[in-house]
Amino acid sequence: MKIHTLFSPLNADELYFTGRTTVVIDVLRATSTIDTALSNGAKEIIPVDSVEFAMKISGNAFGGQTLIGGERNTKKIDGFHLGNSPLDYSVEKVSGKSIILFTTNGSKAIVRAKFSENLHTCSFLNLSAMAEYLYNLGNEVTILCAGFNGMFCLEDTICAGKLITEIEKFKENIELTDASKASISLSKSFGRGIKKMLSETQHGKLLIENGFEDDIEACSQSNSSSSIPFYRSGVIKLPKENPEVKTGL
Ligand code: MLT
Q1: Residue whose CA lies nearest to ligand 1 atom number 9
Q2: Which of 29, 66, 85, 97 lies at a CB distance of 3.0 to 4.6 Å from 61, suitable for a disulfide?
Q3: Is 86 close to ligand 1, i.e. is its CB under 6 Å away?
């Protein structure tokens, strides 16, 4: 087993992901929100890489069963039903719904990795479940950190380091790239108190400034979920909706 880590989606083009097993991490907040929405009964998430495309495909949606969610500069976009706060995605609002999701970094990273054979999303919320799943799958893994405006960000890298550390509890002698080793090292230096770490990152500070302090708490809940969100044919669902997924759990 070998684990690669990419610190930004700009580190690889779409074709890099062809046939790979990829895990996208956007702790603040897209992959935490996706986990929350699916755990609260959303039927599926449709990640998109532009607002225009979100509006275009929402034009085909009818009957109130499809919502559009996401953010620009952390804030809900005019005309969208939901922002990108996990707290927006309550059972009452999302149960049974398809959600088109556009976010600055996270949804774009997922779309960039769409040619992966297995494509999943991870955050602190489902970290242990994802580690066990990846170990059972036994494939070479690429962890794609969504980063912050195309650049490195600490929170996604620390989550990547912790994910690798969890996988190593199941299996020794995993081959790690230099970036994977660096993410483990950063998770050891900065990852002790997740909530504090998140609130001190650039993106965390911006969220607090914009009134989303409660999201820091929501995104810091380690292993509150055992979801394995799985992308196929343009939508993210949970395995029960994707019977072909071998969860190994
Ligand atoms: C992103 O995709 O960059 C984030 O989820 C942005 C945010 O919600 O602040």
Answers
A1: 74
A2: 66
A3: no
Distance separating alpha carbons of residues 116 and 145, to the nearest angstrom:
15
For ligand 1, the distance from its centroid to the CA atom of residue 69, given in whole angstroms, is 11
| Whole-angstrom distance, CA of residue 32 vs CA of residue 227 | 11
The radius of gyration computed from the CA coordinates of the chain, to the nearest angstrom, equals: 17
In this prediction the pTM is 0.95
CATH classification for the domain delimited by 2-231, as one of 2.102.10.10, 3.40.50.720, 3.30.470.20, 3.90.1560.10: 3.90.1560.10
Q: Give per-residue pLDDT as tens, 154-204.
A: 999 999 999 999 999 999 899 999 999 999 999 999 989 999 999 999 999
How far apart CA 173 and CA 26 sit, in angstroms, is: 27
* Domain positions in the chain: 2-231
> Given this model, what pLDDT does residue 61 score?
65
Atom of ligand 1 nearest to the CA of 206: 9
At residue 163, what are phi and psi to the nearest 5 degrees?
Answer: -65, -45
| pLDDT value for 63 | 65
